[in-house]
Specification:
Strand content: 5-15%
Largest sheet: 2 strands, antiparallel
Strand order of the largest sheet: 1-2
Structural class: mainly alpha
Number of strands: 2
Order of helices and strands: EEHHH
Radius of gyration: 19 Å
Helix content: 55-70%
Shape: flat
Length: 84
């Protein structure tokens, strides 16, 4: 288990359950991004209008992993989010 995506044993590379979960999540993101294209063209006929919803899913995923990595450095976050 652990925090790695791939593990090497006896000179063979194996995928961990974390890698499989990441793969399923990314396939779901791509499927939803492709699925939103016909809905966008139902609203507008501008060809470049499908780019923002498609890439926003990828940027949100990257932002989540960025914040997850930086969360340990934000030690005053609980003080700032505390109710008055």
């Amino acid at each position: 288990m652990g925090r790695t995506f791939l593990r090497t044993q006896r000179r063979k590379v194996y995928a961990t359950p974390l890698f499989l979960v990441l793969l399923v999540v990314e396939i779901t993101d791509i499927t939803l991004a492709i699925d939103s294209i016909p809905a966008i063209f139902g609203i507008t006929q501008i060809p470049s209008s499908f780019i923002p919803p498609t890439f926003s899913r990828f940027w949100l995923r990257a932002m989540y992993f960025l914040l997850a990595g930086v969360l340990s450095r934000l030690r005053y976050l609980t003080v700032g989010c505390r109710p008055f």
